Amino acid sequence: MGVKVVVIPVAGLGTRFLPATKSVPKEMLPVLDKPLIQLAVEEASRAGIKEIVLVTNAAKRAIEDHFDENFALEQMLESRGKHATLKLVRETLPEGMTVTVVRQRQALGLGHAVLCARSVVGDRPFAVMLPDDFIDDVDAGCLADMVAIYAQTGACSLAVEEVPRASADKYGVVSLDADDRISAMVEKPAPADAPSTLAVVGRYVLPAAVFEALAQVKPGAGGEIQLTDGIAAILDRVRFVPHRFKGVRYDCGSKLGYLKANVMLGLRDAEVGQDFSAWIHSL
Fold this sequence. Notes:
Layout: E1 5-9, E2 30-31, E3 34-35, H1 36-46, E4 51-56, H2 61-66, H3 71-79, H4 83-90, E5 98-103, H5 110-115, H6 118-121, E6 126-129, E7 133-136, H7 142-153, E8 156-162, E9 172-176, E10 182-187, E11 198-206, H8 209-216, H9 227-232, E12 240-244, E13 248-251, H10 255-268, H11 273-282
Parallel strand pairs: 1-4, 1-6, 4-5, 8-12
Antiparallel strand pairs: 2-3, 6-11, 7-13, 8-11, 9-10, 9-11
């Protein structure tokens, strides 16, 4: 059984981008001309994913609406002959993909958000994507590589990257055994206590067994149900490997990372890239 479903938790409040996120979900903030959530869905599509499960709350209807049809807008664009723009609007959800929405009624952590998708995912292997982590990869993408690992070896995987030890308390950090298998995980350890400097970033390929583990774990760091703790509980019976992805990760949950992502995509853009580059160099 391959990985055909991805859970995308989008219930967070995005407080680091207030006041912009007072009424606009942070996942709808654009990187150049595409919102973060669309970039995540497009990466999932390139990985062969056919089913999206959005874990959201009642204040995030704009995300659902983004992937729905907008008849008035489409009719206006068609009547004005704006066929290229119409095509972009109709392709916000890649062909063949479906979207299911479940509610996270209480903000009890990432692990709890993933657990909310249990009734939809069932006993299938699945992926988890965090839209805040935009991984810029000109090839198929990070998730496509992780889905291929599962198809070829049966191993689940976590996307990881080296981080400064001083920043270890911002991440889940893994330990590896002699076979390059993930042997332990800890959520947001104090830098001095971190088992390594290999941090988990927002891409996961998981077995359905993690749902039962999440249902049993007690609140961890920050008083929340941590996905890291659920994964750690099954490491002794499920093979997990680290995926050292290609490309560059931009933490678009931070202002600096978000700005960097916009600059890099702006410089590559066919329409404005050359002029934008000239302007950058004139500063």
